[in-house]
Write the structure tokens for this entry.
Amino acid sequence: MTARVAALDSVWFGSMTTTPIPTPDPPSQTGAQPVLAMRGISKRFDATQALSDVSLALYRAEVHALLGENGAGKSTLIKIMTGIHPPDSGEIILDGRQVQIANAMAAQALGIAAIYQEPMIFPDLDVAENIFIGHASRSVLMNWGKLHREAEAILQKIDVKLDVRMPARGLTLAQQQAVEIAKAISLNVRVLIMDEPTASLSAHEVEQLFRLVDTLRKAGVAILFISHRMDEVFSIADRVTVFRDGKWISTKPRSQVTSDGAIRDMVGRTIEDFFAKTTARQGDVLVSVRNLGRTGAFRGVSFDVHRGEVLGFAGLVGARRTDVGLALFGIEPADSGEIIFDGARVVIRTPEQATGLGIAYVTEDRRQLGLSMPQSLTTNITLPAMKRYVTPLGLVDSKREAETAEAFKTQLSIRTPSVQHPVGKLSGGNQQKVMLAKWLNTQPKLLILDEPTRGIDVGAKADVHHFISDLAGQGMAIILISSDLPEVLGMSDRVLVMREGVQMGIFNRDEATQERVMTAAMGQSASTSAFANADAASAIGTGAGPSTGAAAGRSG
Amino acid sequence: MTPQNLLRRWETLLVVLLAVVVVINVAQSPFYLRLDNIINLFQLSIEKIIVALVMTFVITSGEIDLSVSAVMGLAACIIAFLYSHGTNMAIAVVIALLAGVACGAFNGLWVAYGRLPALAVTLAGLIGYRGIARILLEDKSIGQFPDWFNALGQQPLVGPLPVALILFAILLICAIVILQRTPFGRYIYVIGNNREVARYSGIDVRRMKLIVFIASGTVAALAGILLAARLGAVRGNTAEGFELDIITMVLLGGVSIFGGSGTLVGVALSILLILNLRNGMSLADITGNTQTGVIGALLILSVLVPNLFGAFRDSRAKSRRAARAT
Amino acid sequence: MRRLVRPDQIRVFSLVVLLVAFVLFFSAQIPGYLSGRTFVRISTGVAIIAVVAVGQTLVVLTRNIDLSVGSVVGFTAWAVGMALASNKEMAAPLAVLLAIGIGVLSGVVNGLLVAYGRVPAIIVTLGTLAIYRTILVGVANAKTVTIDALPEWMKALPRANLLTMGDLEVRAMVALAVVIVALFQLGLVYLRFGRRLYAIGSNPDAARIAGLPAQRTVFLAYVLCDALAGLAGFMFLARFGTITVVAAQGMELQSVAAVVVGGVNMLGGSGSMVGTLIGATLVETIQQSLIRVPGLSEFWIDALLGLLILLAVASDAIILNRLRKAWLARPTPSGPDGRDDRDTGARVSDSALSASGAPAGGKSS
């Protein structure tokens, strides 16, 4: 289901000029001046020209989306806007006056705030303190009553229900983001930068977040929204800017942008087939899971995975799909049910056991869990399979290690100066490939992928999808856990849907539509949440939930 | 600058400092570079440097063991206690070694499996094991060990080189091989870098850490036994305060306190540096007390100086960039 | 109010229960235990260690540690004693100021190195522990302070009472310690500086990004900590009179014990002065009372102290975790059936924030 390459709204010309002229952006409807304008910004880091002569203008009460592959310069621009780095050249104009943003505190004072994928909160302090922590306050004493009252007031303004006295430790990721937004509001934010805020949220929570963004927009905040999810961009943005390789490519009102055109701008080439899943001939059953459960996490999960099959795991946050993966991999073993692997009943209690059986798990969190950042590609790639690289004397065989690493470097097109380079210095997409290499090197029979394309650029994403397809074609059994619905639907032979630790159903490829999967993922009733009342029915009815449909704009 | 380059620079610095200290010492005493003096140099601190070797593993794996001096003292006290109550010395030695294993296992179980901070656990151990040593010996001093035992550390084994020194050399080589060239060493580095990554890569982190702590306790006990042999007498406070020297030797060698980086070559160099420094200070009639203060200062400098250099380099780069921008 | 029933409060409460249990146990073992004399003996011991522990708490809250306090106490006690012995006319407030001043000086050194030099606290304070003690030994030249050399008011100080209730005497020094604990407890809750201590320990990276003056705050924490150690040195001098060069050796371990037992998290971010005071009381009570239990030699104290620290840290980790999970599992507006619905996504939880054993500062995630 290559939904994304559905009928184009219009053919996009004009973005293929080799030297785009950075014109001041088209003014907003009211013709007012921008709140924040970046003009001709350049920034160099050692050998890399991160930004060259880039311009961007943010207007009041407008959501401005910024698209670009990894390395396009988006994070650098954010760092300049928030005072972390000074630009090498160019001007920053705030409300018509030129300013220098010397440091983070200065940015804050100017009303510029940023929210990232991983909220920075203080788990031991309560919510109210978290909201007001950054305030450069004159007072030496704390006024708790006032603190709690004001915190409650702000939360009410953005329609978020939280107990301000609760220690922040207990909050979900989405709630933490709400706290961050409340923090920004408390600082009278005028420009809010949101850097991939939805990367770890469920579709439901994304909806809540967008409602919040809408509230902010109506209040007059200028919002810079960075996301890799095209459909989100189309649903929330008023204008869309594309960067590529540190240069400004285009800025257009939302109505004039198409997903295919935007992708072309970002990549410089058309992506023919986003999802390249070829239907492979499937073999016999490799893994059989019956009534698997872990107390407090999930229960009653049953499925088969055939050799050569891609079984997708779909669901919202809280569905506990990762926990099933962790149970199969032995990190958090199940305490009920059974697993039959390759014909024999097995009990998996440790990752060593799992790898011994031929199960590999590629984590969703490559920074914290997936790779040892300061160490080389070689070390990372051979780590789980060290036993194969030992000489009779018990020493490590460096030559064979290097050979393995080189082989994967070629096979997966990993861009790196050498295999001895520390993986921490690679881009996100390449890091993901190293993780893949690491686990492929264990020659697994079952490969569990957890959000394999999260936060990586479009080109690398396509590479990964191609590769998964190839692997399945070679007979590997694959479980694909992904919150990207089009990805799951496009890549899977069958889709298993979970909701809050319970299996809701398994769909075959032809019967799995976005609506069916979403309905199953959300269960029967409308769920209540920390945020405003969500009406699940309305979300399903229009089929226009945030992660539906890539060729966006269409209904149903 | 990659971690590898940084380390090489650090080791070069150590070599330079070592050369300077040796030159100064030779100027103070023409007999300095004689073999028997060099042997003597090592002898005086052989127990500490043996423990420093294993402490390198502990710190590289991201942990710390503050209780080593207490385990040394405890092993020494166990020997003294048992021997003075009529036990065969050889058996007493074995029991002391087993005690070291037990202490290491105790530490390791709480840290690795109980997930308690190593600082707190080994601090408790520092107090507790010392306490047990005091229970055994109270405020007595026990000595008069059999001759074969007393000669243990000193007796020349290969040519003029005594047992203890050869033991150190063997342990050094083994340690280098294990840490740099075996899978176990790899695992230690990864665990020190990021424990969760190691776990998610199929490494049994808890078992590795337990092994490291058991090794630490065992080697500390061994060192305590050698210490008792060399001193000829044991008190309740034997080996008190040794952890300062030991930790300094490791950190001065370029091993990061946070774990995940550093080499034994660096530690060997820093050991040489500290030994020669102490000896040189003795030659210059600097009291043992002052020497301790100097070691304390060295410890701080070993981390402070690289930090300052790093900060200096960063600010220079920043101003260079700013200059280019204008 | 929910605030009252937080897991941390339960911990402090259980400490009090434990203390009472120990007191009852000892009163059964030791004849004449429940007397005014015992109270005076223990409370005066607690007074000194509590003052040091209050300072230690400030530092530990920021995810650091100060192992040099023992040397600071010893040095201050000796130096002030010598000063008083040479000028008997020195006014009392001046002597106190001198003590605090010496402490401030050490605190400045420690604070500069940890906060601005970015050297991990364990390294710095292990080093200054040796350096300060070295300076003391070097300066003292084996001279000791003897009690006879001290002015009269100094000799009378340890016996000065604040109030007497029949058999029970509350010494002035004890009252001072209680006042200090109370003051700093209030400071932790009502001073912005105090809240910053918690923030820095709770999430050092976020503190930096939020623009908190982290370096200055940690620096001040060390200055305060060692200033209090200096004050404790003065109290130490008053109590013991005779000061040798090994005075207060090991007191840093006792202060850490008091802090850890008192529920302050070694990884920073949580704990209170009230807990520290009770922890100090518990530690001192056990230490002093064990000596008097017939059949138990004094040499058992240290071993048991080590065990106590271990038990405190272990039970903390286990019990507090369970309590926290129970606390989170209650129905709240946060989810349909109150379940902790973190599935995928960045786990900004203990694994990311806690350093497994890295002594101070930890790894930044």
In short: The radius of gyration of chain A is 24 Å. DSSP finds 18 helices and 20 strands in chain A. Chain A touches chain C through 58 residues (CB under 8 Å). Confidence is low (pLDDT under 50) at residues 1-29, 269-273, 524-556 of chain A.
